[in-house]
Amino acid sequence: MVHQTTLTVIKEDITQVEVDIIVNAANTSLLGGGGVDGAIHKAGGKDLLAECVKIRERQGGCKVGEAVITTAGNLPASYVIHTVGPVWNEGNNHVTDKLRACYINSLLLAREYNATSLAFPNISTGIYRFPKQLAAEIAIETVISHLDSRILEEQTINHVYFVCFDNDNYNIYLSMLSKYDTEI
Ligand code: AR6
Prior knowledge:
With about 180 residues, the chain is of the alpha/beta class. It has helices spanning about 35-45, 45-60, 95-110, 130-150, 165-184; strands at about 5-10, 20-25, 65-70, 80-85, 115-120, 160-165. Helix 3 (about 95-110) packs across helix 4 (about 130-150) and helix 4 runs parallel beside helix 5. The longest helix has 18 residues, at about 95-110. Ligand AR6 binds next to strand 2 and helix 1. It comes from Paenibacillus pectinilyticus. This is RNase III inhibitor.
């Protein structure tokens, strides 16, 4: 628990998670791809894609570290936040700052939409090859320090889910979050 927000790790397909907003690990085109992005587009359907296309026409896609929001289409969530994680490049090109920005910009956008619950996938740890341990440290620390820094009345989010798909990430998150639980 961080202030009034509960952090939970689950092993699940994020398209099945019932929260206000799920986050997508997209690419700069916003037009879908493989991994979690492919699963979200497939389950979300044509309305979700149509909104991505509109954003693309308006602002040329989404930059690395930034986030945009669309309907969730046929998914159980109300909205999808699409954020673009950095491609791991041996730590070059400010990849850690960019990954941190993905989490912060997603949390800010979720707050703007008055979300009470939010689910993150393990951004950049698949096709973009970011080391899983480092990515988990960044994800958890960024979410906790962002929530800690907000005045309580300003915060609507009361539940953040870290949705893991592979065993490695699940075990890393479980052990990292148990450490945080005992410290807070
Ligand atoms: N639910 C939850 N997590 C999932 C799911 C799912 N259905 N499917 C995969 N993961 P990746 P990236 C996990 O590759 O590394 C796409 O083509 C997976 O185990 O989806 O940020 C985009 O269009 C991994 O831990 O995203 C981009 O081009 C995590 O999601 C590129 O891949 C992220 O893996 C983005 O690469």
